[in-house]
Design brief:
The protein is α+β, with helices and mostly antiparallel strands. It is 17% helix and 8% strand. A two-stranded antiparallel sheet has the order 1-2. A hairpin with a 4-residue loop joins strand 1 and strand 2. The longest helix has 13 residues. The chain is globular and about 30 Å long.
Length: 103
């Protein structure tokens, strides 16, 4: 009796709809940043004050002046920092490869 009950339940469960795998899901990127538009972040420009990465067009809001201010910055390399980091930055990269601001 128990074997028949188990087999009956197994048959019912196996007929409950189609299985969906990750391969069946549509391809594409999902934006979880809470922002919209073509850029990776918000509308604030390079050097503007910010409070989160989502505020900045570059998607980078970093602390400066001993963490007293946060500014929108962008990625840079030491080799190209002079062109990567225009004013109002000080024209250099941080060790974390984003443009540095003194204040």
């Amino acid at each position: 009796m128990n074997v028949m009950l188990v087999l009956s339940l197994a048959g019912l469960l196996s007929s409950c709809g189609d299985d969906v795998s990750i391969a069946d899901m549509p391809a594409g990127n999902v934006d979880l940043s809470g922002t919209s538009g073509d850029g990776p972040g918000g509308g604030k420009m390079f050097g503007d004050l910010c409070s989160s990465n989502a505020d900045c067009q570059s998607g980078l809001c970093e602390p400066f002046a001993m963490m007293a201010v946060h500014r929108c910055t962008k990625s840079c390399t030491v080799a190209t920092q002079a062109t990567d980091c225009p004013a109002p930055s000080n024209g250099t990269c941080t060790p974390n490869n984003y443009c540095r601001f003194l204040q």
